[in-house]
Amino acid sequence: DSGVTQTPKHLITATGQRVTLRCSPRSGDLSVYWYQQSLDQGLQFLIHYYNGEERAKGNILERFSAQQFPDLHSELNLSSLELGDSALYFCASSAPERGRDTGELFFGEGSRLTVL
Amino acid sequence: AQTVTQSQPEMSVQEAETVTLSCTYDTSESDYYLFWYKQPPSRQMILVIRQEAYKQQNATENRFSVNFQKAAKSFSLKISDSQLGDAAMYFCAYRTMLPTQGGSEKLVFGKGTKLTVNP
Prior knowledge:
The structure holds two protein chains of two kinds. Chain A is an all-beta fold. Chain A contains no helices and eleven strands. In chain A, the strands form two sheets. In chain A, strands 2, 4, 5, 6, 9, 10 and 11 form a seven-stranded mixed β-sheet that branches. A four-stranded antiparallel β-sheet of chain A has the order 1-3-8-7, with no helix packed on it. Helix content of chain B is 0%, strand content 50%. In chain B, strands 2, 5, 6, 10, 11 and 12 form a six-stranded mixed β-sheet that branches. In chain B, strands 3-9-8-7 form a four-stranded antiparallel β-sheet, with no helix packed on it. Chain B is globular and about 50 Å long. At the A-B interface, strand 4, strand 5 and strand 9 of A face strand 6 and strand 11 of B.
C-alpha cells in the first residue's frame, strides 16, 4: 500500500460527459502529480501541484483541469470526453521538501476511465 | 528537456535465468535520480530500484541491480534468477534532484519494456 488513494477505481461514461477523479496523497506529502496511461502506452505527465500551487504542466488538454485543495487532496476534471480519453489515470505524491525527499514518487492504484 | 529511451519494447527470459533491460536518458543536469518501476498486470506502479546520480556505486535490491554509466547516460536493469512474478512492464524514469526555483520534480518515463518470463 503506497498510501495514495484514488477514487473511483473504475468509471464508465459517455462521450461529451464530464468526470472528476480524486486523489488523496500520502499523509504530509505536499506534491501531487497526475499521469495518463493509454492502452499499452507509457505514462504521460499531465500536471504537478505543490501545496496548492501549480508547478508544472505537461501534455494536458484544455478540456482537462486540476486543482489541489488546502487539505492537499487533488482533483482532475475531464470534460467534453472523447473516446480517446479512455485511459488509466494515475495520481502520485512525494515529499520534495528538504529532509523528506527520497526522490521516489508514490503512486495510487489508478482510476480506469472508459468512454463509450 | 529530459528524455528517457527504452529501446527494447519486449524482452523474454527463461525462469531462473538473467535478463538485462536497457535505458538511456538525456539531460544536462549533474544531480538527478533514476528509477526502475514495475507495472504488473494489476497496473500498480511498483518501485523496483533507485539510483542517485552522485553515487558511483550501483544500486542493488535483492535480485535486481543496475549498471549506471553516468558519462554514457545509461541505466540498465539486471534481473537475476528470474521468477514468474517478474513478468511485467518495466519503466525507466528520470527525476531532477534540485529543480530550479518553482520547478518540478516530476518523473519523466520511458515507453517501457514488456518482460515475459517463460517457465
